[in-house]
Amino acid sequence: MAGVLTFTDRGIYCPAGDFYIDPWRPVARALITHGHSDHARPGIGRYLATEGTAPVLRHRLGDDARIETIAYGETRRIGDADVSFHPAGHVPGSAQIRVAVAGEVWVASGDYKTVDDGLSEAFEPVRCHAFISECTFGLPIFKWTPQEQLAQQINGWWAANAAEGRASILGAYALGKAQRLMRTVDAGIGPLLTVTAVENTNAVLRAQGITLPGTQPITEDVSAKSHPGALIIATPGSTTQNWARRFPGAATAFASGWMTLRGVRRRRGIDRGFVVSDHADWAGLNAAIKATGAEKVFVTHGYTSAFQRWLCEQGHDAHVVSTDYSGDDGEDAT
Amino acid sequence: MKDFAALFARIDESTKTNVKLAALADYLGRATPQDRLWTIALFTGRRPKRAVTATRLRQWAAEVARLPEWLFEDSYHVVGDLAETISLVLPAPREPRDQSLSHWIATVKALATLDEAARKSAVIAAWDSLATQERFLFNKLLTGGFRMGVSARLMTRALAISTGQDVAVLTHKLMGNWTPETTSWEALIEADDPTAVLSRPYPFYLAHPVENPADLGAPAGWHAERKWDGIRGQFIRRGGGHHIWSRSEELMTDRFPELAQLADFLPDGTVMDGEILAFAAGAPLGFNALQKRIGLKKVSAKALREAPVIFMAYDLLEAGGADLRQEPFDARRARLEAVLAEVPPDAPLRLSREVAFDSWAALAAVRHESRSHNVEGLMIKRRASPYLAGRRRGDWWKWKVDPLTVDAVMIYAQSGSGRRANLFTDFTFAVWHGDDLVPFAKAYSGLTDAEFREITAWVRRNTLQRFGPVRQVTPAHVFEIAFEGIQASSRHKSGVALRFPRMLRWRRDKPVAEANTLADLNEMLALYG
Ligand SMILES: [Zn+2]
Ligand SMILES: [Zn+2]
């Protein structure tokens, strides 16, 4: 039986519809799960994405990119395939892509998380025969801090720094994590500042109707003096830029699932690590896979060998698929 | 334990010395005397003995977490630390309780008296009452592996802040063979003149590496000698007995029974700084010989015969019971020579001879032949310098010999653990043998984070085969591997074993075909093995 979806060196391919899902090389037609750079690459003929993902795609790929949109749950026929997009809970607009061909249903998860972050459309399990699941954090050592406790931790850290007269720099990925953190923290503690990459993404999301607390971009005239006790939401690479010098003695923290690991926290050379991720933790992955009812599971993106073996022992027909998503090392590792 | 866990977190996560110092001083000011004493003990390496085997802990943790053992092991590989792995996989505690650090240490110690079943339920009950971070610390106590990123020096500075005592006085008080069971906060820290100081060594003075000694100025102000490749130690002759301390403040007197006779030749109140070396026929045997011997719990007659040790003395810190550390190096050295002159020549004690030189170029030539003398290079000491405590820049320099190097092909990659869990950092390297690539070394350090990220992405796309966590990759990249020594080994396919191999640089300019061969390695073995 030829699969509804197949795995090629360009990405996940659907022969019946002649399209790719999140390809990593230029192809004619691609369905995009979400706007992170390892899933949505430039140079593709036609893109199809959710209405919530399209603005970020346009922002990243420019006006020339040909981007069509689809609503969550809407079914569209492409060739002999019926495709629909369903919330993945990863970032605003993120989707799992369901592909049905002649009664057989496959779902490609993209990146997902099962906990409701209060920002992204909440994950919805989709019943299917075969499920292609990410497993960035597919080991039982990964358990996310509950949202409420996380809020306490970050607010406590920020407030303590502010009381000592220090700024707080919190590192996070520009799309998704940054906005989630803005909505998590207590803006009453002090001013909320953003670096350019974050503020640009904020503008895109605000324009599509997502409510975010008021933020002040770090322009030339913004410093520790002008905004005492500020919390700065910064992208990982930006903390070595010039603006950081205007906040001497600032406390630094990083928000990522990798912060679970003491060694990774120490390698970052930061003062604090907050365990928060837009990927599913161990319990989330297991629950999501169970909820699909899939007989066949393909795992990508992370601790694939261990997770595949675990799934097989749980009675699934599980396989490892090699992909080019950088989720387990690159920028998505935030 | 919550307070202690909070202290640990602040110290562990901060990169700023002043933050660590403040956290420690603050904690020491608030904790109970017993917790304070245990904290100092833990931070200075005086940890309770391992109470449960690692094997049992893994089994119990896997059982409580309902995980197959292989998955626990895979997780452990990623985390890189057993105590941390256990603390992460266990379910949340059902009965959280806050007990003191001393309470948990007493719990750990009490395990020794229990049978296996009772031990297991005690450990599981403890897990069930501790939060993740506290659990991690409890597990560290259980496995006897408690270490933290705080130097003894920083610990002592914090103690000085919280007690108002002088750093040097405290450093001396904290050395030696005490444990919280054999002393009290009062006796150890508060008491004025501890009488039981007879065995205590002085804090070691540590050298800094030097790249270009010509920067040090005129050679006349400097004394040079070999950098011996053994175990740095202090030989202490006091109160009618003798003690040998390693640089890591470990008491090693019984490890080296042949050095006991030195007590007969040295006057009471003598302390020497030097190197313990495996030594025969007038020359060092190399570190390998010594290492084999230190590995043994009890020194066998065979080890005594095959790797006899001597004490290679290079400094005199105490004579006639008087502390000489403030005297200039040259003066201490003269007194050391006088002391050694009284010792029979066949005793296992030698003077580390001065290497005379009148120009840095001449000294460079001496350094160049270090490897054939089984030494690591040269030590350069300022003639006028006092003996300082710890690693202080300026007076003592080590000028190590350049490492040996080969160009090798990367053939396997494995992800790192702990701080490098999400990168491929552990590589196996091979050299050519005819048309085959023969693995000969593993290395995991020497690249920048950016290079590790680049190679990680490459490994992911160029995996030929997986063996558990190990990936066989296309032979495509050549690295220059540096190492300190080479010896024959029947346990390795290549027939050689390297000492401290690491990646010196990524040779992007070199095609795979131009990597070194097994014949090249054998030639090095013949020269330096
Ligand atoms: Zn993503
Ligand atoms: Zn991803």
TrEMBL record, chain A:
GO molecular function ontology, one term from the record: RNA endonuclease activity
Domain of life from the UniProt record: Bacteria
Annotated InterPro entries: MBL, RibonucZ/Hydroxyglut_hydro, Xnuc_lig_assoc
SUPFAM superfamilies per record: Metallo-hydrolase/oxidoreductase
Classification via NCBIfam families: Xnuc_lig_assoc (TIGR04122)
Name recorded for this polypeptide: mRNA 3-end processing factor
Organism of origin: Marinovum algicola
From TrEMBL, chain B:
GO terms for MF: ATP binding; DNA binding; DNA ligase (ATP) activity; metal ion binding
Catalytic activity as recorded in UniProt: ATP + (deoxyribonucleotide)n-3'-hydroxyl + 5'-phospho-(deoxyribonucleotide)m = (deoxyribonucleotide)n+m + AMP + diphosphate
Example of a GO biological process term: DNA recombination
One matching Pfam family: DNA_ligase_A_M
Matches recorded under InterPro entries: ATP-dep_DNA_ligase, ATP_dep_DNA_lig_pp_1105_fam, DNA_ligase_ATP-dep_C, DNA_ligase_ATP-dep_cent, DNA_ligase_ATP-dep_CS, DNA_ligase_ATP-dep_N, DNA_ligase_N_sf, NA-bd_OB-fold
Transmembrane spans: none
The name this protein goes by in its record: DNA ligase (ATP)
Keyword field: ATP-binding, Cell cycle, Cell division, DNA damage, DNA recombination, DNA repair, DNA replication, Ligase, Magnesium, Metal-binding, Nucleotide-binding
This enzyme's EC code(s): 6.5.1.1
Species per Swiss-Prot/TrEMBL record: Marinovum algicola
Domain ATP-dependent DNA ligase family profile: from-to ranges: 302-433
